[in-house]
Amino acid sequence: MEKINILWFKKDLRIQDNEALFEASKNFTLLPIYIIENDLWSQNSYSDRQWQFCKESLIDLNQDLKTLGQQLIIRTGDVIETFEEISKSFKIMGIYSHQETGDYYTYKRDQKLRNWAITQNIPWNEYLQFAVFRGKTNRDYWANNWKKHLEKKIPQIKLKLNTVNFRLGNIPNDDFFKFKEDKCLGRLKGGRKEGLLRLEIFLRKDIYLYRKNISNPDKSKDNCSRLSPYITWGCLSIREIYKKANLKNDINSKMFKSRLAWHCHFIQKLESEPELEFKEFHSFFNNLRKKNDRFLKQWSEGNTGYPFLDACMRSLNHNGWLNFRMRAMLMSFASYNLWIPWQESGETLAKKFVDYEPGIHWCQCQMQSGTTSINTNRIYNPVKQGKDHDPEGKFIREWLPELKNIPNHFIHEPWLIFNYEEYKNLNKINYNNPIVNLRETSKYARKRLYEITQIEGYWDISKNIYIKHGSRKSSFRKRIKSNKKKKDQKNLRQFELNLEIK
User: Would you say residue 146 has pLDDT above 50?
Assistant: First the structure.
């Protein structure tokens, strides 16, 4: 039987800066394969918009591999069954792939595959996809290790692949997945070529307004890098982006590079504790919130009665992307004001994001829901956020045409307009009144969170969470010291100050 190495593509859909490809091609004929896993794509956190981006990236990857001499092999089904199929035609000398910090499904799948490979006496060689490290990690040294990895030289690989005599397979038709209709007309197109073009435009032009417009929901879609889906699906590597950004030396590029570190910092949390996809960081927050399908639906569709919040959600529904501050606001509102479990609202958001990255997403869901205990909790006020970032309501009117005739003075709180006699002749507004009282629900959330912090043993657990997951730049140590010194009313006042209303 012909000896081969399997190059297993997962969310690393590129041939450049691909260490697994470089190593796998050294000794034996290489069989490059992508496996479309039914069980993975059938999860509620996945959607057609993500599949379309992935499919376009696979087509682009296949074109690049074809120039090397061997096209991408496609299979649909189970990973182990696929590898067993290959083993009937070839002697597998090794499996090569990048390490993946995916969701809990991929974590358990990799455990099964590792056991299978051991029983078959096949080595599985994994390489860093990001600066996220397996095994026991010390957060005190994490930042230095991240920087060392990003500054490694990228080898310029020039190779020719031998053609493998094996059925190529096909990408399945779109109706294979039974996804709900999900047009997402504004999403970016997938593939490395599209990612490189976006990177070139960003570094040449848009980065100079990055710091200024990063939180603006309208301008950020142009002045943010918009590279996140290309990073998520591995069309571009973080290392090559970092090196190109390093050629610039201004405040905008420094801020952008800090976001690349932030990206890996959050994924490291899920790598260290995969159960965080569904289990609270701090056990005292278990079962805190209640299921509410009506609220979840209105929030998901952008019909909460809060114009700026709804405009952000409708923009996300159309584009598959939203800037970080607005994502945080959506999650905060669902968790604090609607009091929906973060697992449910997080799942709803996950399928909307073309750049859904489990390590970032689930840790952020918990951070914006107040269950980590080591982060400052921020209850975002959507009215204030709208006045700060869309003062004239331009963004609101773009996504909520039913409010196009509302005067600027009332665009953020349209329910107030009918308190004034001079506006009673205005046509009836086909828009919801607020589904909850912002002030009352925020007050309730602060009270509940504070009560939990007063339970005996709370801060001891928090300290252990910080040691395992906390950024060494956070203010958590000061909060711990403050808690030891202050009791009762002083401690209450300090905690309420920490629950900033943004």
Answer: yes
Task: Please check the confidence at residue 403 and state whether its pLDDT lies above 80.
Answer: yes
Lookup: tokens for 130: 């990001």
What three-state secondary structure class fits 97?
strand
State how far the Cα of 140 lies from the Cα of 157, in Å rounded to an integer.
34
pLDDT of residue 492: 47
CA distance 191 to 213: 26
**pLDDT tier at 157, thresholds 50, 70, 90:** confident
User: What letter would DSSP give residue 334?
Assistant: I
Amino acid at 222: D
CB 345 within 8 A of CB 289: no
Average pLDDT, the chain: 92
Q: Distance (Å, rounded) from C-alpha 502 to C-alpha 331?
A: 13
Torsion angles phi and psi, residue 134, rounded to 5: -80, 160
Q: Is the pLDDT of residue 66 over 90?
A: yes
pTM of the model: 0.92
- Whether residue 281 is predicted with pLDDT greater than 90 in this model: the reply is yes
Q: At CA 118, angle to CA 165 and CA 145, rounded to 5?
A: 95
Q: How many helices (H) and strands (E) does the chain have?
A: 23, 7
Which pLDDT does position 421 carry in this prediction? Answer: 73
**Which among 26, 25, 37, 36 is positioned nearest to 70, based on CA atoms?**
25
Q: Is the dihedral of CA 104, 110, 112, 114 positive or negative?
A: negative
Q: Which helix (H) or strand (E) holds 91?
A: strand 90-98
User: Do 296 and 348 meet the contact criterion of CB atoms below 8 Å apart?
Assistant: yes
DSSP string, 456-499: TTHHHHHHHHHHHH--TTSSHHHHHHHHHH--HHHHHHHHHHHS
Q: How many CA atoms lie within 13 A of 228 on its CB side?
A: 23
Provide the phi-psi class of 473: left if phi over 0, else alpha when psi is between -120 and 50, else beta. Answer: alpha
- Which residue, chain included where needed, has tokens 């700026």? 308
Helices (H), 356-487: 358-367, 382-389, 394-399, 438-453, 458-469, 476-485
Alpha-carbon distance 391 to 218, whole Å?
Answer: 12
Straight-line distance from the first to the last Cα atom of the chain, in angstroms, rounded to the nearest whole number = 64
